[in-house]
Amino acid sequence: MNQGGTMQIDELDAWWRAANYLSVGQIYLRDNPLLRRPLRREDVKERLLGHWGTTPGLNFIYAHLNRVISDHGQEMLFITGPGHGGPANVANAWLEGTYTETYSHVGRDEAGLKELFKQFSYPGGIPSHAAPETPGSINEGGELGYSLAHAYGAVFDNPDLIAACVIGDGEAETGPLAASWHSNSFLDAKHDGAVLPILHLNGYKIANPTVLSRMPEAQLEQLMRGYGYKPHFVTVTDPHATEQAHQDFAAALDTCLAGIREVQASARQEPRTGADYAPWPMIVLRSPKGWTGPATVDGKQVEGTWRAHQVPLSGVHDDDAHLHQLEEWMRSYRPEELFAEDGTLRNEVAAQAPPGDLRMSATPYANGGRLLQDLKLPAYGDHAVVVDKPGLEKVSPMLTAGGYLRDIIQLNPENFRLFGPDETASNRLQDVYEVTDKAWQQRIDDVDEHLARSGRVLEVLSEHLCQGWLEGYLLTGRHGVFNCYEAFVHIVDSMFNQHAKWLKVHQDLPWRQPIASLNYMLSSHVWQQDHNGFSHQDPGFIDHVVNKKADVIRVYLPPDANTMLAVTEHCLQTRDRVNVIVTGKQPTMTWLGPEEARLHVERGIGVWDFAGSEDPRGGEDPDVVLGCAGDVPTVEVVAAARLLKDALPALKVRVVNVVDLMRLQDESGHPHGLPARDFDTLFTLDRPVIFAYHGYPWLIHRLTYRRTNHDNIHVRGYKEEGTTTTPFDMAMLNQIDRYQLAMDVIDRVPSLRSTQAGLRQHLQDERQRAWQYTRDFGKDIDAVTGWMLEEASPDDAT
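and the corresponding structure tokens:
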């Protein structure tokens, strides 16, 4: 053991034995937690659920990390990637006292141990993986692949923090984890903390061997070195030679911490010395799967094989031999040496826990709301666009947002970051580069732009990494935005699921403090793909998002620059949400002035009197309602309303714009849902409604199916028709264009069906001419590209 260590091997081993004992107890027992009497069947849970195989290795690592935390006063976050290693996280939190501090009914005595054991994977209890309910956890263990990305996200801008990330060899086979090794290319050793990857190789997944465990060690070392790490191998060759294992791991851990300090010290000198890019240390721990558990069961090897993955002894209810073997297994940890007569942890074992918030189960970094500070936001009016008249000028909503984000970065240089897969400038957010660069630790050439060792923008061509980094950043108490092409944010569907589920549970735990919302800013969307084509056309992420709990998700479709600005301002001030903002990057019509836009966002939905043709004070229902949600659908709806106003001046058309999509749902289904009376006032009780929507049309029906007038709602949206073409041709291909919408009105207003055949034919002809023009000239007709709500007067032009 390294001479700098103050704990002896037997003390480390005692903690490890205690954690293993508690872990086995959680999987199996509902009573007799200290084995005061011989084990009986009624002491064992009816349903044996949990995962033993990876757990003893996690407990082993945890014990050693506690030693270095105590020795050095090191702030450390423990992140576990191996699947359902939840028994380890819970056991160590109980040993450290944090679990009882958090859940007073799970005391630090025999009765508390009974409750600790019974609740695990039990109805009304806790999950079998590291979940929000587990103190010290920020990483769900239920789905694999995200631990290392979370770890890096956690240490960005936390220069004193080390995230010890245990990566299971099964998890290491996932795509997100494989990409996460590259995260060190974005970690600034001067201003960020450090990640200590611990690759835990125990050989097997549920039933199959793992790739990295079977890889020759020389090849594995080359792989890790190629990723930019300096691996230190610890191999448990004899599962019974635990003293040697402790010595070897302690030495490797001390070496790695010294290596981390060396890398950071070099980077934090002024000027920086040494190589620009130094390898970070890591540990590869080879240990038997199910270490310290039953070596054989029914004559078959268990320890060190896939059979140890879940419940090694599954026949304890029916087989006396299994029940006896379970008791022998638990007694092998010598609980009488670990627990006093009353069930409390003996002082010499309890003393190994670090003090206060240095306990990994108590660290505020794992309850990021404790550290969260409100963002300093720039003045809204400084970025808002002046709108003298609606529908006369075009401004890019994303470009407007870029200027706003630039000022946020300048005002918040240590707790806000922008994440994106190589699309920041493509999505028109490039103004941020006026005040920051992209973080980059590899070679920088003269031709490169906006690359620096330190930067508030993180770009990597992996949506998984962007999502994982941002989640880790948010969960440890900071703020951020993920900007992405709309079609490819689907890549993180499953990661979004896990975060939304985390937030849902997190909100129900009074001890977890609110964290900043996860904000998606999606652009390069389905309706404006002039050169990318069909592959880049998919608005379905919204459909996926609205499946989640209403308390968690929000969806915004700002139709112009000022509403985009107001939505962004609002979302960045929310907590415990997933906010999805979808808008175009190309210049689009400005409709609302600064204060009008802010009010419209607060309402979430509203009538646009300037776009319709009804008398707002007339006291009569309109003949038809034109609804819209999304920037391109809004333009087409307003243009359709103008076509109808010019052709049929007596027709009363109401235009309703939706910026907060969840306003369409009723108030019983979503906190933002519009009360029935308000919805009926906007959309009437019985008049036809033509609704142009940004995404797949059936979502609008799903959100409004309980509404009084639902049977009269006809929705136009994206229907999987697309190619590399012009914006207006995209609208025509999917039948949300102004001519089609105007024809829909004629078809659905009873008084027009048989009286306006000539107008309908004229609209069909105009639509055909527009379509043919795109084929003849490769661009949209001037009547569309140059369209304004009103002809500009000479004064306007001036």
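(Above: one complete record from the training split.) The chain is about 35% helix and 15% strand.
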